[in-house]
Amino acid sequence: MRQHKSLRGLLAAAMLAGCLAGAPAMLAAGEAGDLIFAERGPWALGDRTLTWSLVHEGPASPAFVQVMDGRITMSEVTDPSDGKPVLQLEQKAKGRDRKIGRFPLSGGDPSVVFFLESTTRDMATLTGGSPDYIRNRIKDAVFRGGSVAREGGVTTVVARPFESDPNRARMGGFETLQLRFVLGDDPAAPIREMVAETAGPVSPAVPREMAGQVIAPAPYRHAMVLQ
Questions:
Q1: Fewest CB within 10 angstroms: 125, 172, 206, 214, which?
Q2: Is the pLDDT of residue 165 over 70?
Q3: Which string of DSSP letters, residue by residue, matches the chain?
Q4: What pTM does this model have?
């Protein structure tokens, strides 16, 4: 539970820093951040459970867990520590069922927190890069460089965090990472689709225990689609 509180705190701090960053961003860029991090609480799921399909693909590194046909669920449960209702996120995948953490009903969107923090950890694991650096670049890309397109009642937000990054040559393919969010007419409704994917294969850093071996490059894709 302590780990997930830390996770939420780190992302919340990054979001706040993006909102308060000095120079004003372009209208579309500011709008992109507002749409992704819209205030979707207080949540009132009752007996309903929100379910996203989960795909998690990348190089066959022992440090990276592939998920081909998983699910992320969000439901309202009672916190045994104080008897109050909270949101529970769970991952269900073959041999990998786990509770991700509990989140307050009045907070933001736990599914976005999970998606972005998982993407950050994946990139840090596969490249050996700093999670803080990656997290900050993603935050900057969403709040300062995200584009917004609307068509037929569907809003699509796209951000490319490392497209112009000075360290892109050292990112092993993650410099092409694109984040895509698909929303409906109501920005307070859960995000329909969240996808993080590279345009080509990723060449992962080889873990110390595999020194001298080669891990075949493969495209990275992390996708959650609301069912």
A1: 214
A2: yes
A3: -HHHHHHHHHHHHHHHHHHH-SSPPPHHHHHHHHHHT---PSP--TT-EEEEEEEEE----TTS--EEEEEEEEEEEE-TTTS-EEEEEEEE-TT--EEEEEE-TTSS-HHHHHHHHHHHHHHHHHH---HHHHHHHHHHHHHHH-EEEEETTEEEEEE-TTTT-TTGGGSTTGGG-EEEEEE-S-TTSPPSEEEEEEEEEE-PPPPGGGTT-----EEEEEEEEE-
A4: 0.84
